[in-house]
Amino acid sequence: MSSTPKSPEPVAGLPLLESIRFDLRGLVAAIAQQHDTGEVLMLAWMNREAVEETLATGRACYFSRSRNRLWRKGESSGQVQRLVDIRLDCDGDALLLLVDQTGVACHTGRRSCFYLAPRDGVLAELTQPEVSPEALYGA
After folding, report:
1. Which of 79, 92, 98, 109 is paired with 129 by a 20 to 30 Å CA distance?
2. Residue 61 assigned to a binding site
3. Where, in this chain's numbering, is Mg(2+) bound (predicted)?
């Protein structure tokens, strides 16, 4: 059996949506991973509408808990995620989005949000920003 990701079919979205165990807030954790390298890019949250839009458009859409609205990855920065495949974990309470990331995934300007690690008694930054947040968001 091939492990090559295949683009998800919108028609297949209904069985997926019915199988997701959304939490009491109507959210499910979603991990974005670069499809060809395996690099873990970020963790975000999705509600049913975000999952539906992601499946329909092929572009990652999340739910922003701080803004209490849908957040289309790259809408303000241009750093979009094209969906290659989507997978549900064994408990139905987490999604893995295999994506093709354009540019950086992190709002700090780094490729991945997972750049902090304990080193020599401190929390060290393992990577430096590739682009400034000001350049991404015009702030």
Report:
1. 98
2. no
3. 89, 91, 93
- 23 marked as part of a ligand binding site: no
Q: Are 130 and 110 in contact (CB under 8 A)?
A: yes
Distance CA 8, CA 93 (A): 19
Is residue 90 a known part of a binding site? Answer: yes
Q: Identify the CA nearest to 95 among candidates 37, 19, 9, 38.
A: 19
Q: What is the pLDDT of residues 37-86, one digit of tens each?
A: 999 999 999 999 999 999 999 999 999 999 999 999 988 888 999 999 99
One-letter amino acid for residue 42 of the chain: M
> Measuring CA to CA, which residue among 5, 26, 14, 28 is closest to residue 86?
5
For 7-33, write each residue's pLDDT tens digit.
555 445 679 999 999 999 999 999 999
